[in-house]
Amino acid sequence: MERKLNMYKPQVIRRIFLCCLLGLLYPFSLLAQQAVDVTAKADTNSIRIGEQIKLQLTATLTPAQFKDANFKILFPVLPDSLDHFDVVTRTAIDTSVNQDQHILHQTFTLTSFDSGHWEIPPMRFEVITGANATSDSAVTLPIGIDVNTVAVDTTKAFKPIKAVQSVPWSIWDYWLYIAIGITIALVGIGIWWYLRTRPKTEKVVHVPTVSPYEIATQELKVLKEEKLWQQGDIKQYYTRLTDILRTYFEHQFNIAALEQTSEELLQNIKPVTKLNQQRDKLRSLLTIADLAKFAKLQPTADEHEDCMRKAEEILEWTKPKDGPAENVAGEKQQA
Prior knowledge:
The chain is an alpha+beta fold and 335 residues long. It is built from ten helices and twelve strands.
């Protein structure tokens, strides 16, 4: 029995050793699987003040890492200013493939205005792995940059400042202004020529197709058919009757009859021979009309009809023989 135990003891010890060894190496194997190769490279390590540097950050992923949905890598976010360096431009993160490796890269343009030896600090990449989003980091090495001043030879004498040189005048330096001026002048001449030569529109005088006599005759007919005085509207009857005559006098003889009193109208018809010949009839008609309108006189039926008849007689006596309206000047010459 003791002999059997001695035989199994080396095997047990060997198995325990192997288990311990595997337990120690397992985390390192996981880390090796998730390890990311990150680099930071500059296109030069020496510049003069104000010159630019191209800084490229890259992260190389294996196919397994690239296809793993739970694997993410975050590039460092550079501020606009670093120690002794300024960020001029930055590109978006781009991806390329090289022998099954997926390479992510981003380029920054830096410049510096401080002379001396400066270091671009290490760049930290955040690596997120696993379903629990375990975070780790990968860091690049710093990059040394020499920023040099412009060499000045102090052994040579300073050169004097050059005088201001005059540039010879050329008409082609002002061709745009000349073209604009010529264009404006041509447009002005064109507008002037158009306004001068365009056909002038003549004022069209519209001659009424219906004479004042015909209008007055028609209105008297309408007034007679309305039978206002028969309905007791005496004032309205005489107002309409006198307005018809006054409007006829204005249009036919150019007398401002609508704006005058009865006496003024009787005075102003004297130069018009035809109208003055009906002076007594007109006076009688206007007198009854004024009394009916302003003194509330109640004329008889015979007086109503007599006034209408006198108005018609005045129109018939004074109606023009030939189309155009007579004027006062013509009547004066006839007188």
